[in-house]
Amino acid sequence: MIQRIAIIGLGTMGPGMAARLARGDLQVTAYDVAPAAIERARAMLGTAEGVLDALGIAPPPAGVGTVRFTDDLGEAVSGADLIIENVPENIVVKADVYRAIDGLIASDTIVASDTSGIPITQLQAHISHPERMVGMHWSNPPHIIPMIEVIAGEKTAPQTVATIRDLIRSIGLLPVVVKKDVPGFVENRVLYALLREAVDLVERGVIEPEDLDTCVSWGIGYKIAVVGPMALLDMAGLDIYKSVSSFLNADLSNRDDVAPMVLEKTGASKLGIKSGEGMFSYTPEQTKALQADRARKLVAVRRILEGRE
Ligand SMILES: NC(=O)C1=CN([C@@H]2O[C@H](COP(=O)(O)OP(=O)(O)OC[C@H]3O[C@@H](n4cnc5c(N)ncnc54)[C@H](O)[C@@H]3O)[C@@H](O)[C@H]2O)C=CC1
Ligand SMILES: Cc1ncc(C=O)c(C(=O)O)c1O
Question: At what residues does the UniProt record annotate the site feature described as Important for catalytic activity (predicted)?
Answer without folding.
Answer: 137
